[in-house]
Amino acid sequence: MSTTSLKVTEGEADFVVHTAGKPCKTWYKVIGDLHGPTARRPLVALHGGPGVNHSYLLILSDLTEAHSIPLILYDQIGNGNSTHLPEKMGDISFWTERLFLDELANLLVHLGIKEYDLLGHSWGGMLGARYAATQPAGLKHLVVASSPASMELWIKHQNILRAQLPQDVQDVLSEHEKNGTTESKAYQAAVAVFYSRYLCRINPTPELVAEALGWIEKDPTVYLTMNGPSEFHVTGPLKEWTMIQDAHKISVPTLLLNGRYDEAQDPVVAPFFHEIPRVKWVNFAESSHMSHFEERERFMEVVGKFLVDSQ
């Protein structure tokens, strides 16, 4: 991927969080021309995790190159180049969905964005769906990529996928979860087997995907507090998360995406399709959780058409 011919701007937005105990900033990157006379409506991309960074979504600049859609990427608080708060490890009253919704709203104001589209991947799609359900002024389109409509459905189908792993891998996972040693190398190696089937089927893992996932190890504060040790061993407050009752409030045209081998299996995303009034669902037959890498050309074609046809 090359963005050498595109305008790239980086910066930080002050983000006031009264309970943080220190000043906070949100780091962002804009690829393309945001305010020029020929600028299109920008696409704001929300990364997953919670606890990775923006890097694995840089590939969305394909849309900027092909359609002149400005791309806004940022690292959510606690992650990447934004303010880290390791002292808040385990503080579920601090690490809330509302914190990240407020951060998104703050960034849009900082950048002077009046109209925009949102694309959220995994946790980012959960966040984007919740934000869209508030019917914010200026939001025109929503893309929900490989995101669960509820964590109850997510966990149920993670365990179905997990049961398809080799028995010895399943035994390692079960043993370490029972003993509370999920930080061990053996447990993480077993999780990596799961990831190779259902997170990203490209071998070796693309560098930008590995970089993003690496942030969980560098600073696990957000991931461990909100989620827990792994995709299928969810112990944090996200365990109770759901959009099923509120999805009908999403009033903008919505594109729903997932892959055949995705952690976000069809029954996990289906409530979005059933409840959102104006929604299109596209499944990528050769993809798991990273269809923007695994079927890059088709992914960009589908998303680009959805965004551009209604510009």
UniProtKB/TrEMBL annotation:
Q: Does the keyword Hydrolase feature in the UniProt annotation?
A: yes
The molecular function terms in GO held by this entry are: peptidase activity
Q: Which SUPFAM superfamilies match?
A: alpha/beta-Hydrolases
One cellular component term (GO) for this entry is: membrane
Give the top-rank taxon of the lineage listed in the UniProt record for this protein.
Eukaryota
Which Gene3D superfamilies does the record cross-reference, listed alphabetically?
alpha/beta hydrolase
AB hydrolase-1 domain mapped to chain residues: 42-295
Give the keywords, sorted. Hydrolase
User: InterPro entries of this UniProt entry?
Assistant: AB_hydrolase_1 (IPR000073), AB_hydrolase_fold (IPR029058), AB_hydrolase_sf (IPR050266), Peptidase_S33 (IPR002410), Pro_imino_pep (IPR005945)
List, in alphabetical order, the GO biological process terms annotated in this UniProt record.
proteolysis
Describe the family membership recorded for this protein in Swiss-Prot or TrEMBL.
Belongs to the peptidase S33 family.
- The name of this protein is Proline iminopeptidase
